[in-house]
Amino acid sequence: MIELYLSSDGKHTVHVTADTPEQLTALVPVAKVLYREVLTEFGTKAQLWEEANHPQSNGHTPLEKRIDTVAQALDAVAPRCPTHQAAMAYRQGRYGPFWSCRMKEPDGKWCTATQEVVKAKNGQSAVA
Predict the structure, then answer these.
(1) How confident is the model over 93-123, as pLDDT tens digits?
(2) pTM to 2 decimals?
(3) Are residues 123 and 77 in the same domain?
(4) Whole-angstrom Cα distance, residue 43 to residue 19?
(5) Structurally, how many domains does the chain consist of?
(6) Which among 12, 15, 59 is positioned nearest to 40, based on CA atoms?
(7) Residue 81 sits in the same domain as residue 112
(8) Cα 4 to Cα 73: distance, rounded to the nearest angstrom
(9) For the segment 23-46, what is each residue's pLDDT rounded down to a tens digit?
């Protein structure tokens, strides 16, 4: 018989009991495999202490990752420049928000393609 004890302090144990030495010899390799799987999934006591004493974050998503997520979401809904077929950038201008192309022309000047952003009925911004 194999018993598995998962401990909250990370000191997980696998107990093997058998009626005969032959049964015990047969169960030991299975118990070792089980123990390795437990350590892989839950970690060792030392790993848990290291993580508890030196947390990698405060539980919040890092700012860089949040910015990337917002940028990806904007790229997904952004209109495409009619000249370059690239996603346009959301800009806040003097007269309100608008979409503008991020690309440069062959002569080095910025592309002048823009699109107005209008307010949708649900209060969200939409492409004109």
Answers:
(1) 888 888 899 899 999 999 999 998 876 565 5
(2) 0.41
(3) yes
(4) 31
(5) 2
(6) 12
(7) yes
(8) 45
(9) 777 777 777 777 777 777 777 777
